[in-house]
Amino acid sequence: MTLSRRRFLAVTAASVCSGTMAMAQARSHSWSGRAFGSDVSIQLSGPRDQVKLTLDRVIVRMRDIEHLFSLYDPSSHLSRLNRTGRLKSPPPEFLRLMDLCSDMHTATQGVFDPSIQPLWAALAQGKDTSSARRAIGWDRVHVSSGAISLAKHQALTFNGIAQGFATDLVRADLYREGFGQALINIGEYAALGGPFTLSLSDPMHGHLGTRRLTDTAIATSSTTAMSLGKSASHIQHPITNAPALWSTVSVKTDQAAIADATSTAFSVMSRAEIRQALSHLPVGTEVTLVDFNGDIETLS
Question: Quick one: which of 169, 185, 206, 242 has the fewest CB in 10 Å?
Answer without folding.
Answer: 206
